[in-house]
Amino acid sequence: LRRTDTTRKAISESNSKVEYTFLSPDGNEVTFKNLSVWCEENGLSHSGMWKLYAGKLSQHKGWKFVGSKKL
Residue 39: which H helix or E strand, with range? Predict the structure, then answer.
């Protein structure tokens, strides 16, 4: 079964259990549900942002972790 990118994204978002909030390099808070998809869409390393979320990095390419909440 082949799914369109839109369908895969919708399924992925509906399966997300965490909402992430990061601070962009220009100071804006950005909140989203799927870290992998968001990183891919924004040209950021998933592993770098995951390490930032996990507290192993203090910043990644100017981004900082603000918080998360379980959905």
Answer: helix 35-42
Please give the distance of CA 29 from its chain centroid, rounded to a whole number: 12
Q: Which helix (H) or strand (E) holds 32?
A: strand 29-32
pTM greater than the 0.70 cutoff: yes
How many other CB atoms sit within 10 Å of the CB of residue 49? 22
- Close Cβ partners of 21 (under 8 Å, ≥ 6 residues apart): 29, 30, 31, 65, 66, 67, 68
Q: What is the pLDDT of residues 6-64, one digit of tens each?
A: 877 776 666 678 899 999 999 999 999 889 889 999 999 999 999 999 999 999 999 99
Task: Tell me the three state secondary structure of residue 52.
Answer: helix
As given in the structure block, the two tokens for residue 49 are 């942002």
Query: What is the amino acid identity at position 30?
Result: V
